[in-house]
Amino acid sequence: EDENIEEIIKASIEARITGFSLMELFLGDDGVLKVKTVGREFIEFRDNLPTLKIGKNRFVAKEPFFISITSNPAMLKTLWIAYAKQYVLSLYLKFAEFLGVPPLIGGANSSDEKTLKDMSEAFESLRSGSYAIFGVNDTIKILEGRGSQEDFMEFIRYCDAEIAKCINGSVLSSNTATTGSYAQGKIHENNRFEIIDADIKFASREVKKFYKRFGKK
Prior knowledge:
Strand order of the largest sheet: 2-1-6
Order of helices and strands: HEEEEEEHEHEHH
Distance between the termini: 13 Å
C-alpha cells in the first residue's frame, strides 16, 4: 500500500501544478491492486475528456480502470505572467532599437539635390560606433526622446515578484524583487510551509477518497 500512497501523492502534486493528473488501476503479479500515474505524454484531451491511444485507436480513460484528479492549476497564473513579461520585453527591445539612437535633424548649407541626397544617406547610416562626413556649415540637431526604460523595468520587476508569489507564496521583501530583512525572510519561510501544508492536505484528501472507493479508511 505504501507504493500506492506514493503514487497518489505524486499524482496529487501534479494536479496541483498543472490542473490534471491521471492514475491507472491494475492488478500486479502478486494479485494486489496497484496504482500508476499515467505520463502526460500519453494523454490527449478530446471533447474535454482524457483519452489514451492503443494501436491506432483512442479510448476515453475513465473509471473503474482510471481515476482522474483535478485542481485549480497553479501553473496557469505563472504562465500568464511570464507571457506578459515576454511581451513587454519585446516592446522594450523595439523601444531600445528605435530610441537608442535619438532622431537626428540635419541642416545642409547647400540645397542642391545631390548634396541633400548624400546628407540624407549619411544620416541614415549613422549608428553607434559609425561616422559620417559633413560640410563645415552643415548642422546636426538631436531630438531628445522623453521615453524612459524605467517604466519597462518596473513592470519586469513586478512580474518577477508575482512569479515568486505564485511559486513561493511571497517575495523576500515588501512586494519587490529585491533582498529583504530577516523578518521578511521568516515570513517568506512561513508562506512556503503554508503552501507545503496545503499540498499535503490536498494529497491526503485524494488518498482518503481513493481508499474510500474500496471501503477502506
